[in-house]
Amino acid sequence: MYIIGITGGTGAGKSTVVKALQAFGAEALDCDMIYHKLLFNNAEMISEIEASFRDVSKDGRIDRHKLGEIVWNDPALLKKLNNITHKYVDDEIKKSIAFFESQGVKKIAIDAIALVESGQSKKCDIVIGVLAPHEKRVSRIMSRDSITREYAQMRVNAQQQDSFYQNNCDYILENVYNTQADFEEKCVEFLRYVLKEKCHE
Fold first, then answer.
1. What is the DSSP letter of 161?
2. Collapsing DSSP states into helix, strand and coil, what is residue 55?
3. Distance between CA 78 and CA 68 in Å, rounded?
4. How much is the pTM?
5. Which of 22, 57, 87, 165 has CB 3.0 to 4.6 Å from 129, enough for a Cys bridge?
């Protein structure tokens, strides 16, 4: 079984790469989606967040937007939040990998912005970094998440620089294409090469 890590900043195009990998037969694990589910159903993680960040709950649930406003502008607080959440996400990833392995799955894609920082990259046979121009990322997440430019800028600015991914990934895929269709085509071409080289497919 091969585990392929997909990382890069928000809005870079990681989900497009993951969809292309699924077309090659991979099962996908989205760490951001796992985290959001845990915010609803993992009482222990919720309690830790509430104990560390005051007034972030609304009607008994974590207000993600309010929590984001707190951590995106403060690297120390973002690290504090990640120290809480990463261990819970990691537990879910381990369970999913064990399940997929028991089902005979040959390829798993782990999609995570903090793949390297969380230690998830150590599970991976291949780590792919997806990069895109700053303004393209801001515009994409404004449209995708229905957020203001200010909030989008905060999220993008709080994340790693391109050099971090260049120094910590086995491959870099740059999303500099004018259309989504062009990038999707590039993803297929790129993954065909990577899977042939690393997974002997």
1. P
2. coil
3. 9
4. 0.92
5. 165
